[in-house]
Amino acid sequence: MNGPKQLADAGQSIWLDNIRKGLLTEGTLERYIREYHVTGVTSNPTILEKAISGSDEYDEAIRARAAKGIADPEELVFALALEDLGAAADLLRPVFDSTGGADGYVSVEVSPALAFDAPDTVVAGEALFAKADRPNVMIKVPGTPAGLVAVEELIAKGIPVNVTLLFSPGHYLGAAEAYLGGIQRRKADGLPLPVGSVASVFVSRWDAAADPRIPEEHRGKLAIHIVQKTYAVYRDLLDTDRWTALVEDGALPQRVLFASTSTKDPNLPDTYYLGRLAAPGTVDTVPEPTLIAFADHGMVCELLEPDFAHADAVIASIAEHGVDVELLAADLQDKGAKAFSESWASLLEKVRSKVASLVSA
């Protein structure tokens, strides 16, 4: 059976964690939508770096824009990214329309340099959304303390947001609170409540960080049970009176999204996480090689259950080996933000060099 279809049948949306021009010009994304049940696309600075600086696919577009006086690397990167993401959003527009705005999104991230600057993140998010000029574009904002302030502001303005770089149940609750705060402000102002949002919880980086420190029998378990606990918190939140009241007035759920789902440990199957993360009402953003592998030989092991007791027991047993989960969550978020900043800086420098070489050629 088609692995992605199993995920879709379980009620989980599949978003491709990749964007590059070839996916669009060669009809690959259209095929993934049709055959692999892909209903969304995400990007990040690392993905953009590989796409734009790792090939000559964008040289003509860079040369054309540079000839018009557009030579600022950041402006160029966003122009190129939005061109691709806009085309992807158009392919996914039928999904967006048929689900009432609950699905069918593409995500573009604000500059990682703004991770700790709420006002400028809001300004950048508004500008990106306006330039994209499509309702099914989500602005990715890191779930740092400053980022969460910006999330509430953007949601209050009616701009869809993908809250990224979340790792723990506590991080997720911060993102959910920011989303709810924005929706409640819209309600108080008499504005329409349907504003799309997802809370992106990173998965495999937990095991990549913890497994070298713990006995073999515990390896490959921390990430799944952090996710299981987060999913339980998410399900509990959906049952609160606060949330129910907003739903009755037309609000959409801010769905939990499982990110970083490729397998980092070569001793684990390449579809290890996908087969264990199937859960209704959630999103799984999948790197292209992992999606292809799951379509070829992956399968859903069992549906993820919102089980606090089991998750806490496993997490506690791992913590006994010197893994402080709260400290590790903070460290992973900090390192994730720095990694995206480094990718972004590298991309801008490569684009700057490419502009110089193309203009002088």
Shape: globular
Classify the helix fraction into a percent range. Answer: 55-70%
- Tell me the strand order in the biggest sheet: 2-1-8-7-6-5-4-3
Low-confidence stretches: none
Mean pLDDT: 93
CATH architecture: Alpha-Beta Barrel
Helix vs. strand class = alpha/beta
- Would you list the SSEs in sequence order as H and E? HEHHEHHHEHEHEHEHHHEEHHH
How many β-strand runs?
8
What is the CATH level 1 assignment? Alpha Beta
Supply the CATH superfamily name.
Aldolase class I
Note the total helix count: 15
Number of domains: 1
Q: Mind telling me the C-alpha Rg? A: 20 Å
Q: How much β-strand is present in the residues? A: 5-15%
Gap between N and C termini: 52 Å
What does this structure look like?
- The chain is α/β, with parallel strands linked by helices and 361 residues long.
- It has a single domain, classed as TIM Barrel, CATH 3.20.20.70.
- Helix content is 56%, strand content 11%.
- The protein has an eight-stranded parallel β-sheet with strand order 2-1-8-7-6-5-4-3.
- Helix 4 packs parallel to helix 15 (325-360) and helix 8 runs parallel beside helix 9.
- The protein is globular and about 60 Å long.
